[in-house]
Amino acid sequence: MAVKSCVVMLIPLALLLLAGSSSPAVAQLDVGYYSKTCPNVEAIVREEMEKIISAAPSLAGPLLRLHFHDCFVRGCDASVLLNSTEGNLAERDAKPNKSLRGFGSVDRVKAKLEAVCPNTVSCADVLTLMARDAVVLAKGPSWPVTLGRRDGTVSSATEAADQLPPAYGDIPALTKIFASKNLDLKDLVVLSGAHTLGTAHCPSYADRLYNFSSAYNADPSLDSEYADRLRTRCKSRDDKAMLSEMDPGSYKTFDTSYYRHVAKRRGLFQSDAALLTDATTMEYVQRIATGKFDDVFFKDFSESMIKMGNVGVLTGAEGEIRKKCYIVN
């Protein structure tokens, strides 16, 4: 019942965001886009996602991350899913994307849809639905997903390296990157809450633990006890095997404990710590960290995910509907 009421509450919001958008492409997206061509698309995706997350709960975070990394480079066009070719190094092989997981799960869901509705549902829509369902199945909020995205045919590792928000980013740098996608400072602090799910490899945060600067061995913005604990897992900057939970203790559950860690200076990345350096983002972190505003965060996250899912979409005759998500037709 709770999920149903949440969806009903947010439908007017989705329509409002579409109506207020200046993008003709976004205006072509529609919750019922496949109502005649593939009416069971959401049920098919959800059924497969239930099986995937039931078998591997730790995949919720990576599947959500795939959607983020897709939308921040060329918009939400599934370009992150394309394989590299002999003459082109694709996004998924860019350094920031080397740790992405979940590609096989996307292929699995796409194959199910192709069997029922061939050449109909885009990989971009599949990934957007899977990200939403990953959050729901991790006990997070639900929101209506407008559909009708088309798949891009270009994927560049160079663009990914240049455009993805870096784990070491400060507020000015991150704000600039988000603004380039029509996302604001609130979206930045809210979408950072996605770090409640998943794990990270040592190289993405080891610089905070070893030889941080000429004055400090470890990042002074990182709680010293937490830094000591991280060093027991991450022995050096070159340790690529060890994983750390981004939200220790509940990394498979979508909740607000991430903000409690950040408020205690125990965010894993420099970009997490940066949220305490700006008055607006710090106020939001501290408010959600109280544990009294989970419903506010869930609503905010839903709104920001709708906005992000509309970034740079291809519609109409643009792009294509890939038969297989890892290769252009």
From TrEMBL:
List of catalytic residues: H69 (proton acceptor)
Record family assignment: Belongs to the peroxidase family. Classical plant (class III) peroxidase subfamily. Belongs to the peroxidase family. Ascorbate peroxidase subfamily.
Question: Organism classification, top ranks?
Answer: Eukaryota, Viridiplantae, Streptophyta, Embryophyta, Tracheophyta
Q: Which InterPro entries does the entry link to?
A: Haem_peroxidase, Haem_peroxidase_sf, Peroxidase_pln, Peroxidases_AS, Peroxidases_heam-ligand_BS, Secretory_peroxidase
Q: Where is the Plant heme peroxidase family profile domain?
A: 28-329
Biological process annotations from GO? hydrogen peroxide catabolic process; response to oxidative stress
**Note accompanying the cofactor annotation:** Binds 2 calcium ions per subunit.
Q: Name one GO cellular component term.
A: extracellular region
Keyword Calcium attached: yes
- Among the Pfam families in the record, one is peroxidase
- Main localisation, per the record? secreted
Presence of the UniProt keyword Protein transport in the record: no
Task: Alphabetically list the UniProt keywords.
Answer: Calcium, Disulfide bond, Glycoprotein, Heme, Hydrogen peroxide, Iron, Metal-binding, Oxidoreductase, Peroxidase, Secreted, Signal
Residues annotated as binding substrate are P165
Q: Which GO terms describe its molecular function?
A: heme binding; lactoperoxidase activity; metal ion binding
Which SUPFAM superfamilies does the UniProt record give?
Answer: Heme-dependent peroxidases
Cofactor dependency: Ca(2+); heme b
Put simply, this protein is called Peroxidase
State its Enzyme Commission number(s): 1.11.1.7
Q: In which residues is Ca(2+) 1 bound?
A: D70, V73, G75, D77, S79, E91
